[in-house]
Amino acid sequence: MGEMQADAERKRVLIAEDEALIRLDLAEMLVEEGYDVVGEAGDGETAVKLAEELKPDLVILDIKMPIMDGLAAAERIAGARIAPVIILTAFSQRDLVERARAAGAMAYLVKPFQKSDLVPAVEIALSRYSEIAALESEVAGLTDRLEIRKTVERAKGALMTTYGMSEPQAFKWIQRTAMDHRMTMKEVAERILAETAGGEVEQPTP
After folding, report:
1. Which end of the chain has the lower number of beta carbons within 10 A, N or C?
2. pTM
3. Residue 200 has pLDDT above 70, yes or no
4. Rounded to the nearest 5 degrees, what angle is found at the Cα of 65, between the Cα atoms of 59 and 67?
């Protein structure tokens, strides 16, 4: 299955998990799916250092680790715009999920997980990260960025609900429409929201 990414550059992944067996399983799953595991760590502090040195495409962090936990490491890595982060947790409590999001995690996985859970989480994290990068290129101010992200998230949700698009398809449609019509993504998102609220939406071509 290593051919999966043959048409694109293989994504480089850093894993931080204090349980060696889980780390090994995770690395094997990723390699089987065509990803390159470029670094491994057993604590959050080492993970941050490796992320800064290796500049991976994705970082997977266990939420409970010695020295520095996954949430603190995620804040450092996401805050420095190094790479998207996936949080691993054995706890499915809502508060941890919310804290992971607040720390900058793009996706999360609840242990024990299967390869069928891992791959979609990786794809979601990479997709959301590239979306944020595209949105941030439109504006400089942090407040404006947050406002645009909220508006685009709502517009994506409207397209997903109305037309059954996936999240990446909805974002790509907004992005492509903005380019085709020389509009910003915020303007396209606002138009989608206005049209879906009014019930008069022109059928998009995903």
Report:
1. N
2. 0.65
3. no
4. 105
